């Protein structure tokens, strides 16, 4: 008697897990939302969501917490992507909180820390009870502590000692009024997994992720793009062939020298590197050894 064996590949298993998480939240949460910035992790998460609910549309909106200092190419890609998928886009602007006096920017500095207040305001105003994020455990030690369902109290804060066990992929999203869960479908993915999946699925990304020539400046051992958001002297910028491993606030997101101009070349490059993308290209993570954990306790992504 013939038998048929069914086995998932490594990427197939990761995708199936993410699909299960997305569907679990859609079935149990009243008002979920997906954080979407146009960065590679949120692009992959949105791609998996589209597959999870096909042929129906994604049953929740996308939310971008906009610092106002984003790369123009990424904002354009964000808008084109949500328009193609036909889902609502909610933009919560840090500038609105600055104008209202709720946030005070550091002159000439990054606005990333100010995203926390804006995110919590958006969650409260829209009554979101589950917020999908693209964070992965391999990115940073504070994120390595995260559960897939990350419980947040009525102040939006995270306490690693009060997170709930997750055995046999059973998730507990129960919460009282004012509380919510951050949900991370890509928790168990690595940067290499992300790029292998992008290559296998033919997923489009902002062109910043591939090697291109641009004007950069050297700051604290990191290459920053010479944009209107960065104060630079006339003699500072120089031309370099670079790409971005992660994208965010242009004032603190660095790039790396690279010749990788397609997904296959990026996969080969990532397979040989020994530095995480945040460790190599995010200046805001260098504030202190516990910078990310401190921000997460305040309600950061």
Strand and helix map with partners:
Layout: H1 10-28, E1 32-35, H2 40-53, E2 61-66, H3 72-85, E3 89-93, H4 94-99, H5 115-126, E4 130-132, H6 141-144, E5 149-152, E6 180-183, H7 191-201, E7 212-219, E8 222-225, E9 238-243, E10 254-257, H8 263-272, H9 277-281, H10 291-298
Parallel strand pairs: 1-2, 1-4, 2-3, 4-6
Antiparallel strand pairs: 5-6, 7-8, 7-9, 8-10, 9-10
Helix pairs in contact: 1-2, 7-8
Please tell me about this protein's structure.
This protein is α/β, with parallel strands linked by helices and 301 residues long. The protein is built from 10 helices and 10 strands. The strands form 2 sheets. A 6-stranded mixed sheet has the order 3-2-1-4-6-5. It has a 4-stranded antiparallel β-barrel with strand order 7-8-10-9. α1 packs across α2 (40-53) and α7 (191-201) packs antiparallel against α8. The model has no long low-confidence stretch (mean pLDDT 85).
Q: What are the salient characteristics of this protein?
A:
single chain, 6-stranded mixed sheet, 301 residues, alpha/beta
| Biggest beta sheet attributes | 6 strands, mixed
Shape summary = globular
Care to count the β-strands? 10
What Rg, in angstroms, do the CA atoms define? 19 Å
- Helix coverage percent: 25-40%
Output the number of helix runs.
10
Provide the succession of SSEs: HEHEHEHHEHEEHEEEEHHH
- Uncertain runs: none
Strand order, largest beta sheet: 3-2-1-4-6-5
On the 0-100 scale, what is the average pLDDT?
Answer: 85
**% residues in beta strands:** 15-25%
N-C termini distance: 52 Å
């Amino acid at each position: 008697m013939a038998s048929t064996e069914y086995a998932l590949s490594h990427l197939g298993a990761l995708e199936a897990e993410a699909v299960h998480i997305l569907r679990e939240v859609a079935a149990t949460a009243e008002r979920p939302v997906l954080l979407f910035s146009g960065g590679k992790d949120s692009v992959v998460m949105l791609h998996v969501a589209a597959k999870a609910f096909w042929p129906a549309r994604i049953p929740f909106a996308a939310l971008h917490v906009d610092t106002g200092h984003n790369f123009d190419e990424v904002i354009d890609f964000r808008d084109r992507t949500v328009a193609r998928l036909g889902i609502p886009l909610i933009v919560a602007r840090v500038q609105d909180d600055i104008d209202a006096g709720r946030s005070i920017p550091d002159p000439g500095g990054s606005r990333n820390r100010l995203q926390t207040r804006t995110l919590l305001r958006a969650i409260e105003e829209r009554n979101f009870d589950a917020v999908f994020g693209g964070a992965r455990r391999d990115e940073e030690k504070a994120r390595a502590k995260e559960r897939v369902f990350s419980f947040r109290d009525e102040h939006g804060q995270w306490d690693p000692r009060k997170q709930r066990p997750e055995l046999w992929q059973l998730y507990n999203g129960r919460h009282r009024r004012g509380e919510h869960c951050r949900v991370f479908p890509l928790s168990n993915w690595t940067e290499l997994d992300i790029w292998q999946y992008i290559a296998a699925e033919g997923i489009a990304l902002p062109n910043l992720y591939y090697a291109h020539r641009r004007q950069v400046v050297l700051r604290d051992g990191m290459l920053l793009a010479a944009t209107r958001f960065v104060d630079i002297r006339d003699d500072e910028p120089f031309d370099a062939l670079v790409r971005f491993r992660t994208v965010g606030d242009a004032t603190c997101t660095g790039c790396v020298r690279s010749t990788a101009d397609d997904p296959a070349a990026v996969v080969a490059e990532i397979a040989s590197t020994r530095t995480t993308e945040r460790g190599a290209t995010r200046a805001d993570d260098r504030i202190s050894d516990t910078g990310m954990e401190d921000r997460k306790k305040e309600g950061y992504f």
